[in-house]
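Obj.: predict assembly geometry.
Materials: sequence records (below).
Method: joint structure prediction, all chains together.
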Amino acid sequence: MHVMYFTEQPMSAYPADIGLEFGATALMFSNKYYDPVAGSRLYNEYLEQYIYAEEMGVEGFMLNEHHNAPFCMQSKCNIFAAILAAVTKKAKIVLLGNPLPLAENPVRLAEELAMIDMISKGRLVSGFVRGGGQEQLANGVSPAYNRERFEEAHDLVVAAWTRQGPFRWEGTHYQHRVVNPWAVPLQKPYPRVWIPGVLSKETIIWAAKQRYPYIALNTSIEATKNIWKLYDEVALEMGYEAGPQNRGYLQQVHVSDSEEKAEKNARQFLWMQGEFTGLAHPVWSSPSGYFSPEHRRQFVEFAVGRAESPRGRPTFEKQVADGRVIFGTPKTVIPKMRHILEETRPSIYGLWGNDGNVSNEDARTCIRLLGQEVMPAMREIGKELGLTDPFEADAPVHLKYSTDLKQMPQAAE
Amino acid sequence: MAAGTEWTRSEIELAGGKVHFARAGSGRPVVVLHHDTGSPDRLEFYDALATRFDVIVPHHPGYGKSERPQWLRSVRDVAVIHQWLLADLGIERASLVGLGFGGWIAAEMATMAPTALHRLVLVGAMGLKPPEGDIFDQAIVSYLDYARAGFHDQAAFARIYGDVSTDQLVEWDICREMCFRIAWKPYMYSQTLPHLLGGVKAPALVVWGDDDKIVPRSAGELYAAALPKARFEIVRGSGHCVEMEQPEALAQLVGGFIAEN
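Observations (raw structure tokens):
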């Protein structure tokens, strides 16, 4: 099992009541409420928490990025990745991930990632995401070409990592006279790519076609099983059998030394009014062209307030009941983890330990108890259940490096 | 008025996609180019023009009933397709009436064929960077709020759209996606168009609603200054969608202008 520590790195020092009154805390909630003194303190606390997580034995640091919103302070995951590459020794640096469509120059992104891989001595896992709707608006990138840009930027980054330069790139969204980066990844053929996601089927299908592990982000146990079902079907079409090494799962897991304290802190997972990414305005989180046309009818009704959000806004109790939020002491959490691992069988597991206004002290207690008690138990359960991770299995980095395909599929790119 | 106007609806294959257009009336050819929110099938303004002219209302490629060409990348591409449509229909010396976003398309069409037009009418036209203010960004408001912002008087909005149907919302979403495909950045204007307007030979009428919350009036004044033979008119009691809010006043203004020799 590959167990990672994750936090959204909340910018918790903002007036939540004003955010609530404004009605949407991603994109347009004014940064006049941003306090850089608190920001400086929090960045340093979060860095130290990641470093502490390595001391406590995590296999990976999971990092992400978002823009224009208090729910996540990390506006460029490569920055924390670069710092952790230099100051830590063993844990993988797992970016879940860089939003590819936002890149105006994917070659530069390929260079940054290659630098992180070399500085960390080959510890980079380079996940890629489409980025939320707000991210497109915050960065001035048309949501209508989001998926096309995602796929082409991926192809260009991988080409920059694996093809000898100089070469020329004449794509639809990217054109480069000379691709010849003097920074290439240490890991060969290239750093592992994992693809996180929440809802869209297209991304699951795409990940399965590449043979990239798919990381289900904070989905319910039932939804996660449905994701694996689709992934497994596509995998078979591509000629391989998917299993634990293709599956990752991120869940909100807070442990403390008492049940009461654990519950109190776990309620902070809903600190942004219960929304995954803060209180969202529908046309900002899903601008036209961003979502799949098959959901258009359902979405437009939601956007004008005539229908419920497709993602729903489940209560804390509901999220606890369907396995999205887990809390307790190590003693009560470990059986819950066993249940989840048995039900969903991932080999990559992200422990989203702390959110909102959990104090630095409580966050560190959580990390310590996860590292000393919960993770060792998870590893044992993982062994018992055969949850072999991609590193242990030496799984191919991409479908095209497979040696076990039943039939060679067409268009593996 | 003119409730009995007979509109025929046709489509024609152009540049790899079907372009839909409605046509009615007889006389001088007048092409009406619709907003970024598409167009209702019938409007009083269209009927009024059709009592005097041969009126053609195409749906822009990717909007309304016209298919989306996946390759289409710019508003100038749309203008070329509409020129192609006129050529295939054998229409010469057309007058163009561009509404909002359609005004931008009309202005592009005029610059690419400076002597081909009889008259150019721009109503609340997008396409130029307003010297003062910005073109209202639909990306940050819902479909309903954007459509409503086009009106000075919400009663006029209700008269046209009633209780907005889900079909209408879907159509607005498709239109919006198309705008994001071809006019995302810079948003709803061209940086080169102002330098090209000087070549337009046709007399032009630039019309603005006195309460246009979508395109600042300064953009209209810039059009009127940049087009060699232009006149600027304000319609009172109107927002951006002058043809929906003051159809009679606009039809009179436009009809008189196009009928001139």
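Conclusions so far: The radius of gyration of chain B is 16 Å.
To do: check interface contacts against the pulldown list.
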